[in-house]
Structures are given as structure tokens and as C-alpha cells.
Amino acid sequence: MKNPNDVHEQEKRELNCYTHFTRRQFLTSAGLATAGLLAGACGKDCPTEPKKTTPKVYPEGSSKVSTANLTSYDLSKVKSSIQTMLEQIGGVGDLVKSGDTVGIKINLTGGAGSASSYERSSGLPVGETYWTNPVVLQAVCELMKDAGAGTIYVLEAIYDQDSLDDFGYTDVINHVGATFVDLNGKAPYAGYASRSVGNKKLIYSSLTQNGVLNDLDCFISLPKAKLHLGAGVTHGMKNLVGTLPVPCGLYNNGASNRAAIHNHHNKYDGNPDSNLCRVVIDLNNATPINLVINDAVKTVLGSEGPWNRGGLTPKNFNRLLAGKDPVAVDSVSTKLIGYNPMAADLTNPFTTSINYLKLANELGMGNYDLDMIEVVGAGI
Fold first, then answer.
1. Fewest C-beta in 10 Å: which of 17, 90, 141, 170?
2. Rounded to whole angstroms, how far apart are CA atoms 165 and 203?
3. For the chain (length 380 residues), average pLDDT per consecutive 10?
């Protein structure tokens, strides 16, 4: 049994990364940098309610997940594969209408320093290991524009501006005419929004987040399929941890990190990893995911990033996955990378926590039972 007073390596990393800002990083987190990437003035009022009621994205009965076989990140092949997958799950006409605002949550965990170091040691681009691949981002942005999206926000609570600039993401965002919003900051609004978790809340009744999340007609999670040291797996649902602002100290009693979400010892079973999983559930109830496109073409096993014990093992599964039921996509993704998504609590891959896919299923958030999921396309 893990000592409840232990601090995760990732929590330590967040403390180190966010306690010592450079001036540039401070300006970025405050929403005052990144010319050309951040839309709107910083002084407008924050929306108090979501733009519209988020539609139910997981169907009654069985769910459908599409997969495509890919061995490289050639843009034309990635885009055509995603287009086919979207058609196989019924298209996106129910999610994106002409002029709609689409938010795409990417995953750039750990910051530019770790990414550069791991690229040097592994010889692999970070988009082929533990970050969202920029080619996949470009393809999804272009397809959402093709579907009629009027505004596209690329979203992440970044560790540093170099994460965007040095690895191709700024180039992609500019090329497709999207707008990047650093979810650490308040801009384009004057303040954060208080966003209700709803009647299924577990840890938090409401979450203080960037108000742009209230502006979205369609919310897309665009992760990399990986394991996670505390939560077991990290796919579409766990990707939402990166919607919580860090430097403001809202999630660690004023300190510049979000380590407290890893550390709810006094909740439920007192297991901080299990309570981190419950925070993931709260995040998904505050901001339901309309579409997950998960990248398991080239990824890693071991954990979510190279800062954790045991390191990472590059692994090619040669699959993209897509679906409108985020629980189902995460379940199929877990199976695809070699693990049982229906495993019991405190068993592999959920070795230190509850199986939060099972909990999400029990709360009516989607299907985790593989017998209730129709996998189309390339299979798993």
C-alpha cells in the first residue's frame, strides 16, 4: 500500500515548473503573450453559463468506436483516415453546424524541457511518443473547418510557450487559422468562470476554469494513448486534467500548481490516486466530450511522461481511434494498448486506483463494457 503522504513525481514536477516562471512564461500564463494566437480583448465579461446545453454524446444501448490503420503521420493519410472514421460513426453533422465554435484539447504535458530531453535520448519526435501529434491536430482542425466550424480554439494549460513554438504547434495553429487559448490564464475574459459539475459530482461541485469552455458548441479531446502512473490509463477523459488552470493556485491552496487534485486523502476511500480518478469524472461532467480522436499510431508505454520512475518504452500500435462516447473510446484504446479496460479496481492497469472507466459507466457517462461497444474499421 502506498504511503498516503508520498508526493507523486508529477506533483513535484508541477511544483518545479510553475514556481519559477520566466517573464515570458508569466505573460503567457496571464494571457498577455502569444501575439496572433490569442483572440479577443482580455477585458470582456466572462460567460456565466455554457453557450448551449451540451448534447448527450453517448447513445443509449451500444456505442460505436471506429479505428483506422496507420503507420506514419503523413498528413493526407491521417486526414483521409480520420474522415473515414468520422463517417463510420455517423459523421459530425450532429456536433458541428455552420459557424459553430469548436474547442480541441491537446496534450503537451511536462513542458518543452522534458520534451527536448526525451527527444534527444530517444531519437524520436515528442509527437511520436507522449504528446498529441501536430499532424493529427492539423488534420482535425481542417476537417472541422470542412464541417462548417466558424471558430476553432486549440486548448491546453501549457507549461511554457516553447512547447507550442518549438515543436510545430504554433505553425499548425497559424496555418489552419485557429486560435490558441492557454487554459492557465483568464483571457480572452477578465476573469475565470465557475463551471458546475452537476448532480453527479464526486470531489468538486464546481470548477474554476477559463471561460472559453463555456463558449464551445463542440468539444473534442485529442490525446495520445498512454498509461498513467496514478490513474492507470490516460486517453480522452484523463486529457481534461489539462483544462485546470495551474499558476493561479486554485487547486493547491494558493501554490502555483495543481498538485492538490492528486492528493485528496480525506475523500471516499482515502486513496489519493482513486480520488484523482474521481476528479477526472468531475472534469468530464463539467465539460462533456463530444468527440474523442485518440492517437495510438506511435506512442509509449510505462507512464504518462519521462519524469516518472521506470521510464518510457516507445511502442507502435498503428491505430487511430474515434468515437462520440468518450468512455467507449477510452475502453477500446486501453484494450488496444494491451490492457483490460474492465479490470477490477487496484489491478493492472489500475494498479493503485479504482477503474474510473467502470465508475463512468456506472454513472451513465458511457460504455466501458467491450460487449456493448461496436468497433468498426480496422479493429483492435
1. 90
2. 35
3. 41 40 36 40 64 57 93 98 98 97 97 95 96 98 98 96 98 98 95 95 95 97 96 97 85 77 89 96 97 98 87 96 98 98 98 98 96 96
Residue range of the domain that includes 324: 9-377
H or E segment at 162?
A: helix 162-165
CA-wise closest residue to 109 among 380, 340, 300: 300
What separation in angstroms does the CA of 161 have from each of 17, 25, 107, 132, 190? 13, 6, 14, 16, 21
- Cα 85 to chain center, whole Å? 20
d(CA 247, CA 243): 12
Q: Tell me, yes or no, whether 114 lies in a domain.
A: yes
Q: Is the pTM of this model over 0.70?
A: yes
**Number of folded domains in the chain?**
1
- Return the axis-axis angle of helices 169-176 and 134-146, rounded to nearest 10°: 10
Question: Does some domain include residue 30?
Answer: yes
The per-residue pLDDT for 38 is 55
